Amino acid sequence: MPIAWRRCSTRWPRRATSRGQADVAEGVIYRHTVEAFVERVLTRRALLTPEFRAELRALGLDAAAPKEVNLETWALLVRAVAARLCPGKPEAEALETVGREMLAGYSESLVGRSLFVLLRLLGPQRAMMRMAENYHSADSITRVEARALTAGSVELAFNTTGGLSHYVRGLLLEMLARLKARTPTVTFAHIGEREVFVVSWSP
């Protein structure tokens, strides 16, 4: 997904509200995010066979002319790509692979390479704190709040991942890998209506 690095909050996330629930129900994944997914994963990994194009079209994505989609459609698309990219593997593992591919595709682009030079100078903690704000430019649904736990860990609280927690875990793990963080780990748990990820590395 597109990267928009901005300063993020370090407060513990507020309780979900009816307005927040409406944002999830009514929100969309922006067109540029869907376009980036097609370019960085589908095209880059040569997945766009005529057969798979037809399958994606039936799910709501025209790979030749991507448009914004709702969260339900997005989740279906990501799962379909995971099954195509990693046939025979458990869904959790396949979704994580797709998340890694999405971030890898960005980091290998001209803009991504330049940005990661800066992010490595900032270090994993500051980079992860900024990464939380990426979602504000990717869709109108996801809200992430971050707080530093220790010198080698950050907590990211998502209002929702659309059932794609393992995809998000893949994004975060690949981010740590590209930052050359040592012994990276990412765990997550459902806490109330939130999904809370703990991102750790050796400082």
Detailed description of the structure:
It holds the Pfam family DUF2378. This is TIGR02265 family protein. The protein has a single domain, classed as H-NOX domain. The strands form two sheets. It has a four-stranded antiparallel beta sheet, covered by helices on one side. Helix 3 packs antiparallel against helix 4 and helix 5 crosses helix 9. The protein has nine helices and six strands. Helix content is 51%, strand content 18%. The chain is an alpha+beta fold and 203 residues long. The longest helix is centred in the middle third of the chain and has 17 residues. The N terminus is likely disordered.
At the fourth level of CATH, the homologous superfamily is H-NOX domain
Based on secondary structure, the structural category is alpha+beta
Largest sheet: 4 strands, antiparallel
The side-by-side strand order for the widest beta sheet comes to 3-4-6-5
The multimeric state of the shown protein is single chain
Quote the beta fraction: 15-25%
In CATH, what is the class?
Alpha Beta
Protein name: TIGR02265 family protein
List strands and helices in order, with pairings.
Blueprint: H1 18-26, E1 28-29, H2 31-43, H3 50-59, E2 69-70, H4 71-85, H5 91-107, H6 110-122, H7 124-131, H8 135-138, E3 144-150, E4 153-158, H9 165-178, E5 182-191, E6 194-202
Antiparallel strand pairs: 1-2, 3-4, 4-6, 5-6
